[in-house]
Amino acid sequence: MASTGHDVAAAAESRWAWIVGAIIAFLVAMMAYMSLHWAAMPPVRMETIDPTTLHIAGEFVETNLGSAAEPDGSVTVRVLANQYSFTPQCLVVPANTWLHFRGTAADVVHGFSVSHSNVNMMLIPGYISNFQTRFERTGEHVMPCHEFCGNGHAAMWAHVQVIPRDEFIRRAQSQPGRRLSCVQ
Amino acid sequence: MFSKDSRQLVLAHFWVAFIAFFAALLLGEWHMVIRSPLLDWIGNPELYYRSVTAHGSAMGYVFPTLVAMGFGYAIVELSLKQALVGRRWAWTGFILVMLGTVIAMVPVALGKASVLYTFYPPLIAHAAYYIGVVLVVVGSWIWVALMSVNLRAWKKAHPGEAVPLPMFANVAGAYLWAWTSVGAAVEILFLILPVALGFKSTIDAGLARVFFSWTLHAIVYFWLMPAYIAFYTLVPRAIGGRLYSDVMGRISFILFLVFSMPIGIHHLFQDPQVGAGVKFLHAVFTAMVSVPTLLTVFTITASVEIAGRLRGGTGALGWVKALPWHNPMMLAVAFSFILLGFGGAGGLINMSYQLDFAVHNTQWITGHFHLIFAGAIVIMYFAVAYDLWPHLTGRALVHGGMMKAQLWLWFVGMIILTFPWHVVGVMGMPRRMAYFDYTNPEIAPQAITVTLSAIGGLLLVISGVLFLLVLLRGHRSGIVDLPEFRFSQPVHAPGRLPAALNSYALWLALMIGLSLVNYGYPIAQLVALKQTSVPAVPIGGTP
Asked: Which of B46, B70, B183, B216 has the fewest CB atoms within 10 Å, i.e. is most exposed?
């Protein structure tokens, strides 16, 4: 009797262990599938940059910040964070377009997320962060700094305007070579 | 076997832990009120970040460390039934923790160390803050060494016998902490302190974050150990049941030892300095660490069912009704499991990095770790204190009604605090905000949730007051003659165990090996990179 009881207990235990294994395997498989099939990966390449000279030369000089239309139809959005604001403070991007975000920080660690989207990046001084996404709908979003960056952290909010693709292209063509932001 | 000296040692640890806890609890509630729409905006956000630094440092470094240390010393005497070896060293460790706490908190209070307990270099606080934290950790390392020494002494006197489960788990927790704390120790000693002391002016922020992530995740498993030890070795006895499986308990603690560390980079999914491959690897290992928790849920639920059936419960769910719901330990374990369920589900979401994009650094995360630590874990700390108190004071702990009210308030308060955080986190509300502009139409709808959290926090403060009252009254009630302290008995007592389930060498080798593999590559890659150090930014003027 005692041994049957023990067998039942052991069987229940191992059944549960198998269920646990199956749950974990399922979750990992789902993650792998999404990574490969949708290319939904976290920030990928590691790139470095010197925060003490980025304002003088290179892709993060002030005139190069904002949205740039690329020949392949995508848009590159360059953002620079410092205590306690983003440049540009209001981003303008087209809807239904692949956006390549590239960002870095000039002083301390920052980060941002864009409301009602999956845009979420850490900005670490010394490194360039990148992230790809697209907005399906036009509209306005808030873009707070989401990593503690000092006593003014709570004041560090930017905005994102998603406008129709046609309008974005019109604006880009009317000012060739200029990076776009909400400031017209 | 519980000598007077050791009882005083444990009481000292617990009281300092609970006082630190209560002070930090009050600060936490102040954060929720000051940023809610109930009051005007905070005039000086600098005060808010001083306070968050104090809250996090006390709750993360001081409170759980002292609980684990005190509980560990109690376990040595109560489960090994031998006098604690190295009592003088134990007091030295305790004094180091207290000294470190004071040294760290002075610059925090003066506004010279508002870097939060997660440090965030290149922000650099006053050196005393980091030195204080190091002293706290060094004090806890003395405890780690003592746990090892005491187990060795017992094994010498009992060759070949199975180490009692409470001590086996306790020493696993000590080793886990020793290796976990290495990440932050390296970050402080080699990266931050040289800058804080003025020997260097630049720091690699990316590398520092990788080292901190080594500690930041596994530290939660260190906090969790006393709670899990209570699940396995106190709960079944306290509610009149048996532990379903002693061996499964050992396996769970071993799995924590092996899988807690090589997963911490899941805190850096959105960071640029770690590649996607390493992130995927750490996500997979994070999935593995849910295994010991899922095994524990089964074993403890089965143990509780045994209690229910022994008390006459029948049928598929009848045993639930038959459980001793008037018993504080029964309430505590039920609440802890419910909060662990929600918190654990949230953890699986965070682990899946595609979903993490939506919630990283939002209030969701704050909600997640408050559910796990302040909910599931701290509620078991309360239960451990209630269970041990009569054996520590020699006096009865009679206020059952107050204990139950306290546990209920903590449970309900924690839900009202954290569920709104999860909701607004998904909506994108960032964490670590001293105030919100509720006139912004995008933020206005979230105002009500901050008020709700403030109300939940108020319930937690009331619960904290009741907790201290119960313990204080426990020092004044009548002296009782207690039966010998007992831990839970398993259904099948383990006879002779295989060495793998009775010692740590293999598992420590795996723990160290896996951590070095999973962290070695990103660390080596970052160390080899040229030009990644950036100028330090001191808090409150030059350090």
From this structure: B46
